[in-house]
TrEMBL record:
It is found in: Cytoplasm. Belongs to the UPF0456 family. InterPro entries: P_C10 (IPR026317), PEBP (IPR008914), PEBP-like_sf (IPR036610), PEBP_euk (IPR035810). It comes from Mytilus galloprovincialis (Mediterranean mussel). Keywords: Cytoplasm. GO terms for biological process: post-embryonic development. GO terms for cellular component: cytoplasm. It holds the Pfam family P_C10. This is Protein C10.
Length: 240
């Protein structure tokens, strides 16, 4: 059986609502108005108890997957250095020399990225930076930006590195992500990049640190840094 719905105009609804409000204003109905307010308040509280934790959970899942809202969108205005700025005067010394060589020539210009078979770089390298500030703490990051859908892959992360140790070619900081040597699939040639930053915070925020899908810029922003704050860098290519 089909029920015919009565049609109401906007004016009809306004008049009906006004009648209800007028009825509540009568002295004998004052207690009902208070009851309605209490009921509405309790209903709102129950709804917030359900909705707020759910919204918080969704927000945290989004942040975990995609980074902080606004990361890289206002705080840091510059992207990573261009490839020809990854060497030159700010180049790290990655040793042994007979394996890694150098990625700059005598004029400090990029002379082509050295290509190294992955079996030669399975062990963590020695890292040296003679221009490090003796009393400054540093962060060292090694990443693969060419990992396709897994981009980026974090191969090494060390924090709390003393400048005096870098001058001596030692990495005595806290290894937050253990060194994992290059492993490009098939016949692919991937770049492997080292970035050295001055550490601004005594307690580094590691909430975004993960091996796969590592997001460099949000990580830096969480730690009061930007990509162009890099003080020294290095890169090479590796293949199977």
């Amino acid at each position: 059986m089909r029920v015919k719905m009565q049609q109401f105009t906007v004016q009809d609804c306004k008049e009906a609502l006004q009648d209800v409000l007028n009825a509540f204003r009568l002295p004998e109905n004052a207690h009902r108005l208070n009851e309605a307010k209490d009921t509405a308040g309790n209903d709102m509280l129950r709804m917030m108890q359900i909705v707020f934790p759910l919204a918080t959970q969704i927000q945290m899942e989004v942040i975990e997957k995609y980074g902080f809202p606004g990361d890289g969108d206002g705080f840091c205005t510059h992207d990573l250095p261009e490839p020809d700025l990854l060497c030159g005067e700010t180049s790290l010394e990655i040793k042994p020399d007979d394996v890694y060589g150098t990625c700059n020539n005598e004029e400090g210009k990029l002379q082509g990225i050295r290509e190294i078979p992955k079996w030669k770089v399975t062990d963590r390298p020695q890292v040296k930076f003679q221009n490090a500030k003796k009393d400054q703490m540093y962060i060292l990051i090694m990443r693969d930006p060419d990992a396709g859908s897994a981009r980026d892959v974090l191969h090494w992360l060390v924090t709390d590195i003393k400048g005096s140790s870098l001058q001596a070619g030692k990495i005595d900081g806290t290894e937050q992500m253990k060194y994992n040597g290059p492993n490009p699939p098939g016949d692919q040639h991937h770049r492997y990049q080292f970035f050295l930053y001055e550490q601004k915070r005594s307690n580094v925020d590691l909430s975004l640190v993960k091996r796969i899908h590592f997001k460099l810029v949000p990580f830096l922003e969480r730690n009061e840094l930007c990509p162009n704050d890099v003080v020294a860098s290095f890169q090479y290519k590796s293949f199977s």
